[in-house]
Amino acid sequence: MSVNHPRPRQPSEHDGCCRYPALQSRTLRRKLSSEGWHYQQLIDQVRVIRARRALSDPTQSVTQVALQVGYADHSGFLRAFRKWTGLTPSEFRSKLFD
Fold first, then answer.
1. Does pTM surpass 0.85?
2. How far apart are CA 14 and CA 5, in angstroms?
3. N or C: which end of the chain has fewer CB within 10 A?
């Protein structure tokens, strides 16, 4: 299933993503649920992959990475990244480059 969202940095509402593939919001929820997923889980999974990749570039600040993966501020990204990985972005970088 391919889901296109008009604003990939702000994919908080699944209603918006359903306009393009002609898939109703309820149908999307049902299909995801049948596969054992929730929309937010997919968004978080994509964000953590993108964040890890971006953090591997030492020229980017953590704030730049936060903005790239869809967070409006540094603190929200820190909390989310720690929830996903058990590490802060700085700790992740330290382990990556040591």
1. no
2. 9
3. C
Closest CA to 50 of 32, 68, 37, 62: 68
Instruction: Please state the φ and ψ torsions of residue 32, each to the nearest 5 degrees.
Output: -60, -45
Residue partners of 95: CB distance under 8 A and separation at least 6: 87
How distant, in Å, are the alpha carbons of 18, 38, 98 from that of 34? 17, 10, 42
DSSP string, 8-38: TT----HHHHTTTTT--HHHHHHHHHHTT--
Return d(Cα 41, Cα 32) in angstroms, integer. Answer: 10
What pLDDT was estimated at residue 56? 96
Alpha-carbon distance 29 to 45, whole Å?
A: 17
| Average model confidence (pLDDT) across the chain | 82
pLDDT at 75 over 90: yes
pLDDT at 3: 43
